[in-house]
Specification:
By secondary structure, this protein is α+β, with helices and mostly antiparallel strands. It contains three helices and four strands. The protein has a single domain, classed as 3-Layer(aba) Sandwich (Glutaredoxin). Strands 2-1-3-4 form a four-stranded mixed beta sheet. Helix 1 packs across helix 3.
């Protein structure tokens, strides 16, 4: 499983990354978490509002910071 956190590095982007790592750890998943910070790469996903969460190349959440519990539902 490949999980991408899309964002330019703002506080919300960092919080989404932390919540995602927590969710993956609690579920015991074998997943790779990547940070995508280049705006051109972010736009390729059709994301206009960051942060965003992409799981296996599908945008699951954008424009907000979900809790680790909510992220687990998408994993």
């Amino acid at each position: 499983m490949v999980i991408k956190v899309l964002g330019t590095g703002c506080a919300n982007c960092k919080k989404l990354e932390a919540n995602t790592r927590q969710a993956v750890e609690e579920l015991g998943l074998d997943a790779v978490i990547e940070k995508v910070t280049d705006i051109k790469d972010i736009m390729k996903y059709g994301v206009m509002k960051t942060p965003a969460l992409v799981v296996d190349e599908k945008v699951k959440i954008m424009g907000r910071v979900p809790s680790a519990e909510e992220i687990k539902k998408y994993l």
